[in-house]
Amino acid sequence: MKNTTLAISALVTLSAVQGASAAVAVFTNLGVWNNAVTANGQTVAVEGFNSGGSAMPVASLTGSPLPASGITWTATAPTSGVVADGSTVRTFAATDALVFDFQPGVQGIGGNIYTSVLGEGSSSAFIEVTLADGVSYFGNSNNAQMFIGFYSDTASIAKLTITVYQGVGAPSYATVNEMYFAVPAPGALALLVTAGLVGGRNRRRA
Length: 206
Fold this sequence. Notes:
By secondary structure, the protein is mainly beta. The protein has one domain (4-205). The protein has 2 helices and 16 strands. Strands 1, 2, 3, 4, 7, 8, 10, 11, 14 and 16 form a 10-stranded antiparallel beta sheet that branches. β1 and β2 form a beta hairpin.
């Protein structure tokens, strides 16, 4: 019965994540996503992208959410590079997609994912957020607090791609100003580490 909370999200899609059959829920409300995470015995780590940065693009950005959980994210934009500007990460070119890779994969991922216009903040444009297996959210972006999230009840999510569909007026850029990760609760994480150490000792004895 642990998957009951997933039914209250906007959309539940049966799909395959990293080759495993899984129910993936798509959320547009941070509180509901948080409830799904905690109901499945996990906690939330946060990446605020507060490392400064500049308007110059780089090939990739890498970081780890807090509290420390062993998860690393890498942001790229295939053709133009990415920009860390204050507390946001965005593409350098409006026509580019913003791609996040997660190592190791996570069961839940979400964030304030939206479109922005340079020098003006958030914009109004259609945005699509897609996982590696094709599960996606598509809708209109119109504010910097817009939440889009996913939760897989079994397998892990290793990639997220943000695509903007340009409208009229100034170009809109794929932008994220905060990202949330579903991670094992501290007690569960300690048990996993202990199990790994014991398993390692047993293998050496064998």
